[in-house]
Amino acid sequence: MTRTATGDRPQLEAHLRERRSQKRKLLVPFVTAGVSADWLDLVVALVEAGADAIEIGLPFSDPMLEGVTIQQASQRALERGMTTTRALHAIAELELDVPLIAMTYSNLIKRHGYEDFCRRLSESGVSGLIPVDTPLDEAGPLIKAARTNHIETVLVAAPSTPDDRLKQIAEVGSGFVYASTVMGTTGERTSLGQQAADLAGRVRACTDRPVLLGFGISGPETAVEAARHADGVVMGAALMRRVLEGQTVDEVTGLARQVREALEAV
Amino acid sequence: MAEPTADGRFGAFGGCYVPEALIPACRTLEQEFRTAWADPAFRGELARTLKLYAGRPTPVTPATRLSAELGVNLLLKREDLAHTGSHKINNVLGQGLLARRMGRTRLLAETGAGQHGVATATVGALLGLDVTVFMGAKDVERQELNVFRMELLGATVVPVTTGGQTLADATSEAFRHWVGQSETAHYCIGSTMGPHPYPWMVREFQRVIGEEARGQCAELLPAGVPDVVVACVGGGSNAAGTFAGFVDTSAQLVGVEAAGGAAIGSGSPGILHGFDSYLLQDDDGQVLEAHSVSAGLDYPGVGPEHSHLADSGRARYVSATDDEVLHALRKLAQTEGILAALESCHALAWVLRAAGTSELPSGSTVLLTLSGRGDKDAAQVRELLK
Ligand SMILES: Cc1ncc(COP(=O)(O)O)c(C=O)c1O
Questions:
Q1: Is A66 a catalytic residue?
Q2: Per residue in A50-81, pLDDT tens?
Q3: Best to test chain B binding among A105, A110, A186 (most B CBs inside 10 Å)
Q4: Pairing of β B9-10 and β B13-14
Q5: CA–CA separation, B312 vs B202, rounded Å?
Q6: Per the residue annotation, which of A13, A55, A123, A225 is the catalytic one?
């Protein structure tokens, strides 16, 4: 099924707000498109395990913000022949009741053209876009193209972001505010620092958009710690490491299930 | 060459495409550089250090025998005679003094051939700053001697094992580390690339090449200004510094890329390492690996100001093949007694090819920036000439 811009594609922010209003902490797992032969099965299984949205990483050759795990996942996906076009064709076949968010780097978006890229996301049933190396100041033309195509552009906030800028990020971006737990790259961590709590608090003080903490969410403990301060979490490297190690879809999904359960108690 | 726009653009190119976490660091750097560059005390200290430590001004040498053979009047701006053996020291002294002024205690750097790494290790030792250099694992192997030099100078060299394991990967890795340490470490980028303000700042620190050469040409040439100014282009720092001294003259500006890394010659606009510029990439936007005998030009992108100079027509960009470069290296060695870096030999290769043609008619005067000395390449050249 190929969905259209006005089709049954769930709106990202509306969906997250609705789930949040049910007093539910949000879980957004991340999957690198093409990381394994059965990556699409993994996406479906993660939704069944209780994901509230899925972040799909469109692999880029030079991922400047990724730690070792997601670098390797991207490299593996590219070696397996994944491209933006293939990933979007594959995604378009999925029938999910949660929104999909594409995460990628500016060069892929620019190469396809802002307008074209966003239109193709939309036609593939994607609801949101996280352009990780396009900061607020450079995001104008992209956000405009995204809006025309009903794509919500999620911007990242970092511990180093001053308050006045946080406010702009929350206003100009949509979907949710992606708050990075650390000054650093993606990757698993054993605990989250005070920085994460502080940032989530500062973001919440300036917006009522959903706030998700990401980077370093490795399992139930870090997820619970993060969810105490935010509306939910994004979990990536912990899942991708398991895929790279050769775990089955079931085994990988097991971690998401544990996190989901742990979040019920927050 | 003028200041970029407030958002760091030279025409359509440049900008600041970095993860949000690095935005404050880039902003602070821009302000600090702007203030320092307007401060006579900072300028004075830099000028003094360039003179007493790095050995500036470097001479302009008429290449007499080679000129006679080619039928053009060739002048060489001798950056090979600067301390550490290349122009890289000009930029690193500037950034090192700035980092110290900003209270930073560490320098991070990427390096390909190791010239920028050695320059950074050198300045770190001079100023008492810790230095970590990221270098592709392949380059660590190819440039063993430079790795040892950096370590002797007290720097830590980190081999990068991701991707193609060369300069582009080392640069990505340096950025990753900078994200986590931007409050204590200054990322000392080695060329006119990276997010704003780097391309502008590095060009300003390299401007000394062009300004000296302008004065030296005025003394050596009856016309005062050469007909053609030529330099090799990797990220583009020695070329940008050279062009800055001549952009307001009638001189034709020529940049020479490596044929296997010709971002302007065979790339298309794209975004990598924080800036928008010509880039070698496939249809999907995946970055392609560059391939050149010279590790210093083995980079898939080019500084944004060069993309602008190319599009606006003020400078022209050509390329030279590995074979032409090796030939040029021998030619210069045997006619002038100068063993030049493989990078610099790209500029010379174009002069050898163009001399006597409509591109460079007989009787033309040419200023060529000899960006570095060739000692580092001796072992590799021996292998290649076997
Ligand atoms: C001697 C020499 N020339 C030129 C370059 C290329 O750099 P750029 O284009 O920034 O001058 C290098 C880089 O390593 C170098 O070592």
A1: yes
A2: 999 999 999 999 999 999 999 999 999 999 99
A3: A110
A4: antiparallel
A5: 21
A6: A55
